[in-house]
Fold each of these.
Amino acid sequence: MLSLAPRAAGGWARLPSACGAAAVLRPSPWVEKSPADHAAFTRPCSSQKKVTRVCVRNGYSFGRLDLLGRRGSPLAHASVFCPFNLPKYKGKLDMSLFPVENIRNFSIIAHVDHGKSTLADRLLEITGTIAKTDQNKQVLDKLQVERERGITVKAQTASLFYNYEGINYLLNLIDTPGHVDFSYEVSRSLSACQGVILVVDANEGIQAQTMANFYLAFEAQLAIIPVINKIDLKNADPERVEKQIEKLFDLSKEECIRISAKLGTNVEKVLQEVIEKVPPPSVNIDDPLKALVFDSTFDHYRGVIANIALFGGEIQKGHKIVSAHTGKTYEVNEVGILTPNERPTHKLYAGQVGYLIAGMKEVTEAQIGDTLYLHKQPVEPLPGFKSAKPMVFAGMYPVDQSEYNNLKSAIEKLTLNDSSVTIHRDSSLALGAGWRLGFLGLLHLEVFNQRLEQEYNASVILTAPTVPYKAVLSSPKLIKEHRKEEITIINPAEFPDKFSVSEYLEPIVLGTVITPDEYIGKIITLCQARRAVQKDMVYIDEHRVMLKYIFPLNEILVDFYDALKSHSSGYASFDYEDAGYQTADLVKMDILLNGNSVEELGTVVHKDKAYAVGKAMCERLKDAIPRQLFEIAIQATLGSKVIARETVKAYRKNVLAKCYGGDITRKMKLLKRQAEGKKKMRKIGNVEVPKDAFISVLKRQSEK
C-alpha cells in the first residue's frame, strides 16, 4: 500500500500514498530504549498545508490524528521522531533521552587553514544538523570578520545527534581558531571537552600551531584522534605526515584517519572514532548543579547568553541560580543547545553542553570561568581559567570626544564576547579621553578593531602597539610610592628615570619556526637581526626543520611574520609562547619640537634600535606638521643627546623681488633683516601640532 522511506539518524521522510490511505509509522528500536514514557511526533509533508502532531503515551495516541486514524487507537507501528532533525519543530527537546554514557564532548584543533571549519561543516551535514548544499562554507564562522578573512576567530559550539550501531549519541562539537593569537579560545574550549580531533594538512604537514595545540590537549589529558586532511590535493603526501605525527606526537600511523573534508571522503569514520575513543564525561546527574561558563555573548534584546558545560545536576527554566563569582542570584529564563543555532530544551543534564539565558543585563556579570549553582545549594567552585596575559598594548580613542560614551558601551559589550582583552582608562592631551587596551597579539588587535567598526559602527583612533616593560626600582621614595619594587610600564609616559632604577626588563617569547631546509640560512639571518637567541634546531623529516628561538617580543610585534613569509616563499610557519622577562638596555626616546618635549610622542626602545626608530619618527612628523612662518626643528633625543633631526622649512617672502641688480650688500642687508625677524618669531612662536598630525604619527603604519 505504502512505500517506506526511512531517514538517517531518525526523523520523518515523505511517505507517498498511492490511494490516499492513512500513512503507516514504522516501528523503531529507540521507543523501547527511551527513558521517557512519551514522545512528540511531527509529520511534515510537502503536499500538506498543515503539519500533523501526535503525542504518544504508553503506546496510545492522543491529540490530532487527522491522517493516522481515530483517537486513542494503539500505535503498533510506531517510530519515535527525532525532533532535532527537523528545523521547523517548535516544541522543546527532551535531553533526558541522552544518558551520560551516550554523550561525547570533543573539539577540533589544528594550525591555521588546515581545514577545521570545513571538517565541522561535513560533520554537521552527515549528522543531519544542516541540509547538504554547496553553500555550506564556514557554517560555524558567524562573524563578518571571520568570513571576510577566511579564519576562525571565536570558538563555536554545535550539538550533533548521531545513530551508531543502533544507539543515539549526543556529540558536542567545538570548532576552535588556529592562529596563535587566539590560543586562549582553544584552551577555554578544551575545558569543556574529553577529546580532540587533531587535524593536519596532508600537503603542509605538521606546523608550528599544530605543535602548540597538541601540547594544550596533551596537558589537559584529552583523548587525541589524529586526522590527515586534504588527501585530494595533487601534492598531498599523507605517508610523510604520518611519519611526522609518529615522531613528534608518539601516535601510531594506524591511528591516523585520512580524509578529505572538502569532498567528504572518509569523514564518517571520524565520527565513529570519536564515539569509540573519546570517553563520556565523568559526571553524576544526582549531584547538585555545577555549571562552568566557558563562553558568553551579548544580545541586545535578551542580555547575556552564557555557554555552559554541566559538571553535575540539571538545570531548567524557572530555577534560581547563583554566580560563584559575583554572588548574585538569577532566575533562568531559557536553556537549550546550539545546533548550531539556539534550540530551546526542557532541561539540560550533567555532561551536556548548551546555553543559558538568565536575565544578566550587565556585561560584567557573566565572567568566563565562573561557576553557577542552585540557590541555597552551594558547591565548590570549578578551577576556572587562568586569565589571558596580554602581549600587546595599544591606545584607543574616539575620533570625536562626543562619541566617548557610545564607544565605551561598544567596547564593554565586545569585551564580553572577547574576554581576553584587558582595559585601562587613559587620556592624552592631544587625543582626549580613551583607553589603553591589551591584546594577545597583532591579529587580535586588528580583528577587535574591525569588529568594533562592523558590529557597532564605531570609528576609532588606534595608536602604535607597544609591549609591557618592567622596571626594578632602586629609589626608596619610588618603592614607597608604588608599594612594590618591580613595576610594569604599559604607557611610555610612566617610564621611570634610569637613575632611580637598578634594571629594566623586557618581555620575551619562545618562538618556534618550522620551515623547509632550503630557507634555513635566510631565516637564521632574519632571527639574528631581531636580537633572537637560538635554543634548538631539529629535523622533523628529510626536508623540514624546526627552529626554536628566544625573541624579545617587541622585535616580532609588527612585521616579523610578514618578513618570515617573504624570506621562505610563504612556506615557513611561526608560533610563540610567553617566556617571561629578561634584562634589557632600554631607553626612553623623546620627541622635541623647537626644543619643547611632546609627551604623547615619547616611546620606549632598545638602545641598539633607537637611531632607526628616531629617524623614522622624525621623517613621519616632518610630513605631518604643516609649515609655519618660522622654521621648526624636529629632534629625537635620548636624555640630552640628540640622535635624529629633521627641519620643517619656514614660509618665506621673497624680499629680493624688488632688487633689480645693484650692489650685493643691499641684498645681504634685506636677507639679514628677514632672518632676524624669523629668529624672533621662532622664540615667541608656539608650535601646535594639529590632531591629524598626531593621528598619522601615532597610529599603526599599514605599510609595515
Amino acid sequence: MRPWLRHLVLQALRNSRAFCGSRGQPAHLPVPQKIVATWEAISLGRQPVPEYFNFAHDVLDVWSRLEEAGHRPPNPAFWWVNGTGAEIKWSFEELGKQSRKAANVLGDACGLQPGDRMMLVLPRLPEWWLVSVACMRTGTVMIPGVTQLTEKDLKYRLQASRAKSIITSDSLAPRVDAISAECPSLQIKLLVSDSSRPGWLNFRELLREASTEHNCVKTKSRDPLAIYFTSGTTGAPKMVEHSQSSYGLGFVASGRQWVALTESDIFWNTTDTGWVKAAWTLFSAWPNGSCIFVHELPRVDAKVILNVVVCANPKGMKIKSGSMGKASPPYDVQIVDDEGNILPPGEEGNVAIRIRPTRPFCFFNCYLDNPEKTAASEQGDFYITGDRARMDKDGYFWFVGRNDDVINSSSYRIGPVEVESALAEHPAVLESAVVSSPDPIRGEVVKAFIVLTPAYSSRDPEALVRELQEHVKRVTAPYKYPRKNCQRQFLERSKGVNCEVRSGGNEVQPQEGPIDLRRLHEKLMDHWSAPMGSIISSTLKMSKACSFQTASPGSLGNAGKSKRISLALTT
C-alpha cells in the first residue's frame, strides 16, 4: 500500500480495543472520513499528487479492508437490476473479489500485459464495471464504446487504437467478426454471454473458474488508464487519453462537493457505458463510499441530463437560474479571446482552462497520436474547450454555445462529419451538410441538407428520405440518422452566377454576382419562418452545403455550371 495511505488504513485495521474507550464506548473514529479527506484534498489541488496511484488498489481495496474490519456501514457498493426480477448487489469486499477474478481472466486466459489496450463495448451489464476495475488491476488501458457502433465504427477504432482485445455481447459479436480480419492488432475476443461462439472466449465461464487471488500492478499516477474517442465533429474521431490519477482522483471532489455523496448514498447515472459520464460516476461515487445503482435500461427516457465538466453549483452555493455555476477546483477557468487573453466580466468569449505553468493533474493527457490537434486546442496559457460563454462579476458562467457544430441528441454527441460521410456513400447524395435542429424531446436532432445527384432528382421525396435514413442507420451508429420529416426547398444556380430561392409558390428574384448572406437571409425570412431562415442562412455559410466557395467575409463566390440544389431538410 502507498505510504501516504498506510498510516490512515492501519488505524482502521487495528484490533477493536484501539477503537474503544475505557468503558467500552466507541472512541472518535473518523478514519474513513480522513481517507476521503485525503483524496479530496488531492482532487482540489491542496495536496500533491502521489507518484504512484491505482484506483483499484488505493481506493476500492481500502474500502474493502475497512468493510472487512467492520469499520464501514454494510451498504452495497454496486446494485444492478434489469427490470424483470434479476438483481445483483455487491459490497466493496465482494466487488474486490469479483474484480480480482476478472483481472485473472484478463491476465491469465487472455495474456494481457500492462499497457495493452482493450475495447469495452457492453450494455449496462455488471460485467462492464467488473472489467473496468480488472483493467485497472492489470494495467490494461480500457477503451469504452457505445453498443450502437457499426462495423465501420468498430474497424476504425480498433485500427486507430491498435487494441489487442475486445469484450462485447452477443448482439455486437457478429459485427466484430465481420471486420476482425482487417484489424491485425486484435488477438483476443471475449464474449459476455451464456452461450458460446466460435473464435471467442466466454468471459462468464472463465470468471467462474478464475482464482480470487490477484496482485494488483503498480501504476504511476500519469500512466494511461483509459482512451475515449471523440464525437468526430471536425473530422475522424480522435483518441483522448486519461491517466490513472486524472480520473481516479480527479472526480473525488465533484462527487463530494457537487453531488454531495456520502457512504449512505446511492448514485444512479442513466448514461450509456460508452460515454465518459459512466466513468465519472464510477470515479466520483466509489471514492466517497457511495453505491452505484444501475438499471439495465434498453432506452433512456430522461428530460434533462446534467452535463457540467468544469463548472458547477456546489452544495450551499447560491444558484443563479440559467447559469452553469462557478469554476470547480482545481480548475482555473476563464473567458478568453482567440489569442488567449482574459476578457473582462460580461464579455462573450471562449471557455478556457489554465494549463500553464501547471497543468491540472485531473485533466486529460493529450489527443493520442495527434500532436497537431493537441497544439491546436491550446492558446497561450489556456486549453480552449470549444464552448463559448460569458462570466459575470460574481464568477458565474453563462453558456452561449459551441464553437463547433456538435449535436447533442438525448445525451448522444454526434459529429456532423460522421453523418455527412455516411450520406456521401449513398448514390443519391452529391453533397450534404449536417446541422442541429431543436427538438422538444431529445433537445437536438440531426438535420441533413442534401444535394441530390441528377439520377435521383425526380425520385419520390418521402420514399427517398426514408431510404437515406435507413442507409445512415446501416453504415454508422443508428442514433446518428436524420430524424425529422422531410421538407423540400430549391436553390437554383446558372452559369451567370445568379441565385433564386423557391418555397411553395413564392419566389425570390435572381441576384447576379456574389451573394450577400445578410440580404439573402432577409429575403429568406420573408418567405420562411424565422427558425427555417436561420437554419438556411447558417447552412449557406458552410461552403459544402451548396457547392459555393467563400470569396470574402459575408459573400459567396461562383459555383460553376448550372445545377439544381435540393435541400432535403430532414432530421
